[in-house]
Automatic annotation (TrEMBL):
Signal peptide from the UniProt entry: none
Name listed for the protein in its UniProt record: homogentisate 1,2-dioxygenase
Involved pathway(s): Amino-acid degradation; L-phenylalanine degradation; acetoacetate and fumarate from L-phenylalanine: step 4/6
InterPro entries: HgmA_C, HgmA_N, Homogentis_dOase, RmlC-like_jellyroll, RmlC_Cupin_sf
NCBIfam families: hmgA
Cofactor: Fe cation
Enzyme class, spelled out: oxidoreductase
Top-level lineage group: Eukaryota
């Protein structure tokens, strides 16, 4: 049996914030002092550098971490294809691009699946081979990953939005417990294992092929607000001593799955220091900022994380939430106006404190896709109510927890989501916007 060591009673802690340099030791005096790469690391460990960016990326964007581990990750057998059941659609399936607005009813829970087998591609754009674009998944699982199995993606960073259940995530750099209303980011290449301490789980994931997530700039907001760096949590070092068991490592590479086998645990990192690590964030810690005079502010004011493109101010992906907040504007239509956007909007809901079964809109575990320049906005009931309501202060976002993946790219929809999931609501546009009435009155 593997021997597991924890240095800290909690599997994670608040450190200096997202994007900062961190270090952690499960055994004191493991990390070198003064020398970056000693001839003989402490305790007979191996030094391994994990680079999430090119070596020559400017210092402000350079992400790498030094690992001090019992055996290097290069010690393994050949990669071979990892076969999924024929009933599980491949993530490399064809994408269908359409300007149609789409509503997906809640996706089913698959209690027979594990973290590796329970992901379904819903939408995406780009190519991991060229490190461009992204993919969006719905995931569900009812079983732990098998003993001595781990997973990583060479395709991109994975942003996980948990909708139901609890994830116990063991990573090379330490453990993270993820609960609903929390998000987890696992950077490209970091190996991890997922178990389910409270039973089945379901949620959403965005795999970013291009760049990395970062906190948005605050501009005139100043030094604090939105997602504060101090509220992100990173793991502390925890290692396993297991040099005699066969481990299986599943790798996602160019949207396909491969498997390698090795005779040692991938979770044998005794200490680490650097800028490249998994992290989690509790969405309840978001510090909302909005208008207190008039007008509906663009939803970019609720951006938690962004992945910038090469075009200034334009994102490959934004992660946006609609947090609890006071709405107090005067002489203003408070919901979002009808709009057409150069960004594609994939919206979903984590939870709602009231019954949505009588409505024809978005529900927890479902999703909408409003693609580039396709018009959308409130339905007729919402429009009529918001146009005539008394404009008094109202607390919004407390009963419904919603989020959005936004991208400057046109998003295609997978074969499974469009044709086989049986979750596309064919009457969406007819029920949502066709009941809108003409109110125009020509002046006399």
């Amino acid at each position: 049996m593997p021997v597991t060591n924890f240095k800290h009673p909690d599997p994670y802690r608040y450190l200096n914030g997202l994007g900062d340099y961190h270090e952690s030791e499960a055994i004191p005096d493991t990390l070198p002092v003064a020398r970056n790469s000693p001839q003989k690391p402490a305790h007979g460990l191996y030094t391994e550098k994990l680079s999430g960016t090119a070596f020559t990326v400017p210092r402000a964007d350079n992400q790498h971490t030094w690992l001090y581990r019992i055996l290097p990750s290069a010690a393994h057998d050949n990669f071979e294809p990892f076969a999924l059941s024929e009933s599980i659609p491949r993530a490399s399936d064809k994408l269908h691009f359409s300007p149609d607005q789409l509503l997906f009813d809640p996706f089913d829970m698959d209690e027979t699946a594990t973290w590796v087998t329970g992901s379904r591609l819903v939408a995406g754009a780009g190519d991991p081979v060229m490190k461009t674009g992204l993919s969006i998944y719905i995931f569900s699982a009812g079983k732990d990953m098998p003993p001595r199995q781990a997973y990583y993606s060479a395709d991109g960073d994975l942003l996980i939005v948990l909708q139901h259940g609890v994830l116990n995530v063991q990573t090379e750099l330490g453990r993270l417990i993820v609960r609903p209303n929390e998000v987890l980011v696992v950077p490209r290449g970091i190996r991890y294992r997922v178990t389910l301490p409270t039973g089945p789980v379901r949620g959403y994931a965005l795999e970013l092929y291009q760049g990395h997530f970062k906190l948005p700039e605050l501009g005139f907001i100043g030094s604090n607000g939105l997602a504060n760096a101090r509220d992100f949590q990173v793991p502390v070092a925890a290692y396993e001593e297991d040099h005699s068991s066969e481990w299986s490592i599943i790798a996602r590479f160019s949207r396909e799955l491969f498997q390698l086998r090795q005779s040692h645990s991938p979770f044998d990192v005794v200490a680490w220091h650097g800028l490249y690590y998994p992290y989690k964030y509790d969405l309840d810690r978001f510090n909302a900022i909005g208008s207190i005079s008039y007008d509906h502010v663009d939803p970019s004011i609720y951006t938690v994380l962004t992945a910038p493109s090469n075009s200034s101010g334009t994102a490959v992906a934004d992660f946006v939430i609609f947090p609890p907040r006071w709405v107090v504007q005067e002489d203003t239509f408070r919901p979002p106006w009808y709009h057409r956007n150069t960004m594609a909007e994939f919206s979903s809901m984590i939870d709602a404190d009231f019954d949505l079964s009588a409505t024809n809109g978005l529900k927890p575990a479902g999703a909408t896709l409003h693609n580039v320049m396709s018009g959308h906005g409130p339905d007729s009931k919402v429009y009529d109510a918001a146009s005539n309501e008394k404009l008094v202060p109202v607390k919004e976002g407390s009963k419904v927890k919603a989020f959005m993946f936004e991208s400057s790219l046109m998003l295609g929809v997978s074969e499974w989501a469009l044709f086989h999931s049986n979750k596309v609501r064919p009457s969406y546009k007819k029920e949502k916007w066709q009941p809108l009435k003409v109110h125009f009155q020509k002046p006399t």
